[in-house]
Amino acid sequence: MNPSQVNVIGMDLVAAVHKTGPDIATFVVSAIIIIAGAIGVVFSRNPVHAALSLVMTLFGVAVLFIEQQADFLAAVQIIVYAGAIVVLFLFVIMFLGVDRRENIAAEPLHWQRPLALVLMAAALAGVIALGVGSHWATGQQAVAGSTTAGGHSNVYLLGKSVFTTYLYAFEATAALLVIAVVGAVVLARRPSLPSVEPETDARGAAVSGQPGPDGGLHDAAPRGSAAQDASPADVRAGQSLVKEAGR
Amino acid sequence: MSFLGFLDGLGGPHVRDGVIHLVVVLASVHALAAVTAIHVPHIRYLAILPEIVMLGGAVLLLGVASLSDRPVRMSVTTVGTVVISGASMGLAWWQWADVRQHGPFTTVAGAVVTDGFSALIAILASTAMLLTALVGDGYLRREGVEGPEFHVLAMVSASGAMIMGQANDLIVIFLGLEIMSIALYVLAALNPRRATSGEAALKYFVLGSFSSAIFVYGIALTYGATGGTNLAHLTSYLSTHALSSNGVLLAGMGLLLVGFGFKVAAVPFHMWTPDVYQGAPSPVTGFMAAIAKAGGFAALLRVFVSSFGTLRPDWRPIVYVIAIVTLVVGAGLAVVQRDVKRMLAYSSINHAGFVLLGLQAADARGVSAALYYVFTYSFMVIGSFAVVTLLGRSGDVGHDIAGYRALARRQPVLALAFAVLLLAQAGVPFTTGFLAKLQVVAAVVDAHSAPLGFVAMGSAAIAAFFYLRVAVLMYTPRRPRWVPPGREIVFDPIVGPQASTAAREGSGVSGQAEPEIAPGGSLDGGTAEGAVATVPRTLAELRLWSGSERTVAVVERLNADLLIDREAEAVEDGAGGRRVRVPPAAIVAIGICIAVTVVFGIVPGPLVDFTHHSTLLLLR
After folding, report:
1. Per-residue H/E/C for B211-276
2. d(Cα B98, Cα B104) in Å, to the nearest integer?
């Protein structure tokens, strides 16, 4: 677009895309899959069934992505969400015990379900009202031109933008991943030193962040005692990052 | 042909076909590569050298510490961090000189911008890192959590702030934000001996992740509305298109403001601040206050003033309201705090309100005033938390305000340093704090938002109260213990049960209704052990002991009056009574902070010029 010319954009919505019969059929089928999966997530008694219903929903969304010619997004949806995240959910469910029954009818806050329904209805009504009543869209097309412009596939274009336009962001992501790993290791491998904060004072009264009547002397825990008490194997295991240094 | 003949001789036609097939495949791959060659954008490494050095140094330190057989000495880690931060700072100064000489530029496909603004943020982040390494050294030795993690995480966090300062693309801003924040989450949890440290980290992480998600949503809506995430693209798009219906854009802008507001602790999004500042290890708190504000405000100013500049009429009223609420709530709630770290947390919210004034002004003057504020505040807050770190003693506990009573008698230099830093935060003349407040208020008055300036000055007056309270308390000598008139007793729940039992046995009185009145009237009841008649432990016991309701009422009233005194005694009688050891590294760090605060307060010229020339590339 010519930068010097000032356009008034957004007066008319983007013309409706021409829908063909197969398009509509695909949409209806995948919509049914998505909604059925979503209902399954909410109403399944067994958490594993709920997780598998979630896979169904994600799969239906992936079909819709393909219909929108976003092949790569569909593949990522399957690989990342269905493949990794739901599997993570299943891991957690299995760790906690599949057989454990929770009485989900017992609510600690009994008003929160009706409130959630009201808020959801209000939010939905607001979005619909805004979508119908006001012209939100600025008319700018996020993806300029066809997704298969210049005879290149979706994946090619994505890959190209990763190594050109978003090269710096791509490299910065590496730093982000490094720090995430380092952070996880630091938190997971911390020595379990005894806490220096007494839960209660001498008379059993709670002291919250104030010096207790023992004169604020919270030095009961000797420094690094746990690390010294730990067996050599433990120390070695924790040594890759956390070291008792300079002593 | 001889090669194929050789293959024929070697393994027959089967192998030969296979090799030919391989060659054909390789050739086709090569042809594909030739067709689809992409042009990797040109990179001018000067623009990204400071954070490359910082990140590379962090990885190097981590690698050395992980691979060496023996634990790396703490001094080695600290010196290494100081050297790396110093190198990074030097490179940032080089950037600054280059920008002054040749002008600002963008590189790496327009994702990175190097202008005076980004160079200043890089200098600030590396300086904050250097000071924090010095403060953290003594802290880590004292707490027994020695190891390279603190320095590594802090360096990565500092590089995240640098990335935010120079980002010219919303996605890069987000990545910088996350690199900075994730390291800060872990740093907040670094002290395994404090339960509150872990609690603070969890709160920070959960709320921080939530705000990051909101921020990404804002980026997505902005992208949808404008077709790009590059700030230069946003600027040119918004200045060449008159949008008649920009709901999506405004929603995206609002969500971005929420995401930034969380990071800089502006008021509706400040809930995490007091708990995290109180719970995190003290050097980390100072670092967090400096770095998160520097990075957050850098990106906030760049995005809103330069890219959303044409939308000023839309966002200035919002920032106006946020600034007022931030100023008032920050100052108001700081007054009622008993914990010094918590008080400084609310005061940092108040300071965020002041920086928002610079944003609200939304012009070059406002930006340079906000930058000056962020720059000088970083030194004040790191210095303040360095003092708090030293006084926290082992375990990083006892930050109650009562522990600061009579600090000047015990440690005059430390008390003077803390007093100077607190007065600078209050905005006393001849400190940078005064100039910082003056500049943002002047900028906002120039921008026709004078009422906001008045609110800011009012909040500064409130803020002066709680800064001065601590400063005065440090120079107030400990009061003598209160003794009921005519009775040689000590109503003091601090005295242990052993002492009181011994005293009772000694005087032959065992809590009767009419006790003997011991002769003499020494005020120093706490130490005159032989003179102590009896020690009632509770009010009921006292009533029984004195037989007088009036005495009980008096004692109850005095209890309330002397609450701070009593706890001061508790602290002084305990570890607080001893002088805390001040490591040389911390002296250097506090000295630098005070030098910057005072010298540039008295000679304001260089630093004001510095921030004045740190203009944004795309400001119009």
Report:
1. HHHHHHHHHHHHHHHHCCCEHHHHHHHHHHEEECCCHHHHHHHHHHHHHHHHHHCCHHHCCHHHHH
2. 8
> Judging by beta carbons within 10 Å of its beta carbon (0-12, 13-18, 19+), is residue A61 exposed, middle or buried?
buried
Q: B409-463 pLDDT, tens per residue?
A: 888 899 999 999 999 999 988 999 999 999 999 999 999 889 999 999 999 999 9
Q: Using an 8 Å CB-CB cutoff, list chain B residues near A129.
A: none
Pick the residue of A14, A138, A192 with the most B CBs within 10 A to test the interface with B by mutation.
A138
Tally helices (H) and strands (E) across chain B. 24, 3
Q: N- to C-terminal Cα distance for chain A?
A: 66
Reported as a pLDDT band with limits 50, 70 and 90, residue B546 is low
Tokens for B120? 């200043």
Domain ranges of chain A: 20-103, 154-194+229-247
Question: What is the crossing angle of helices B432-446 and B340-361, to 10°?
Answer: 40
A20-103: CATH architecture: Up-down Bundle (1.20)
For residue B54, the one-letter residue type is: M
CA B452 to chain A, closest CA, distance in angstroms equals 32
Question: For an interface test with A, which of B175, B202, B580 has the most A Cβ atoms less than 10 Å from its Cβ?
Answer: B175
For residues B153 and B187, the answer to whether their CB atoms sit within 8 Å is: yes
Distance CA B137, CA B582 (A): 11
Q: What is the pTM of this model?
A: 0.76
